[in-house]
Design a protein that fits this description.
424 residues, 3 domains, 27 strands, Immunoglobulin-like, single chain, Umud Fragment, subunit A, alpha+beta, seven-stranded mixed beta sheet
Amino acid sequence: MSRIVRIAREAALWTGGLLGALCLVSLLAGWVLHVTPLVFASGSMTPSYGVGSLGIAHQEAASDIRVGDVVSVVNDQGLRVTHRVVAVAHQGGDAVLTLRGDANNTPDGQTYRVASAPRVVLDVPYAGYVLNTVASPYGVAVAAAGVMGLLLLAFGGSAGSANRRRVRTLVPVGVVSALVVGGVAGASGAAPWAFTSAYWTDSATATVDASVAGSVDTTPPTLSSPTPADGAYDTAWSNLGCGGTSQLCVNATDVGSGVGTVTVQMLRTGTVQQCWNGSVFVSGTACAARSMSVAAGSQYASSGLASGIMVLGTYQANFTATDVAGNQSTLSVGFSVGPVISSCTRNTSSGAITISWSPVAGATSYSAQSSSPGVGSNANPPVTLNVGKNASGTVQVTAVGPTGQVTSAGWTYSGGGSNQTCHS
């Protein structure tokens, strides 16, 4: 055999072996790193992902999925859909996703509840065509023929150097053979890494939604029954929060496409302008709205609020509900955490009134004031005010702290002689 032929044969064998080893390493890496190849079979994700693009997706937990991510899910018809997340609501350990193709005018006709989902992290244009061809029965047949050719190259020829050739070519031929066996096993779903090769049996189809006359949902969701209610007031946040959970709650319903997401933005208003960032209050009013999760039925609840941060102050909660079709509705409520007068007694001889109230978290000082001119006191409860015998008027308590100041509802003192009283 000439030297040129021998070199060509060895080059073909080692090239095949290296390619086979690379493919096997890729399969094993996909298994270990939870990477899934996805082939885009239609154009609803153009121009971001064209038809025939190969997407590489990494399995993400529901808590890590964000608006703007491109994820792959299975719809109610059992078809795989790969679209962009336009809204997400976290419910327990799951996420309820609203998806829309980049080329579509409306979101998908359903939401998807997932514990995890493959998120596309990169794509290779047109590589999906190549991958589908190689993975087809025709491609596997060509690969098998190639392996047979390599085997003939490896073990054919003169007997004088047969042993040497067998030793030198055993590894690459074995790797190429393993590639074909692994490919067939993966295509049948028998191999442990088959889930990383979704393109063999389950291409990611980005469906194009067609508009149907008369079926467009233009009705926004309905928000109702907020907790706390508008104007609510109490000395402790634990008494204002939803069902003893110290959270905000609101009911959201939709008669059309269904509720997609519900969010709330929380502001601390009055003398202090702050907003809630999901864990603490920070300066300003630009905090993003926080996702709310289904608590029961149509009721949605916030998460992360606690009595330790819901201290003295006036608050505003801005709720927003978005349905699957993209329609929105909003509802705003205001409420306060401040002092509440718990008792007021009157001395019928002097006319003096004595009031008490419970301490308020976050308050550093209190001021009790009556409507009688010049009668007041800066002190902790109980406080006695000498409003005068037979005098009439109202008394209130103002609590002051770093998070603002709030004045209680007034109690009334009135009457004369032995009928002098003080009441709410």
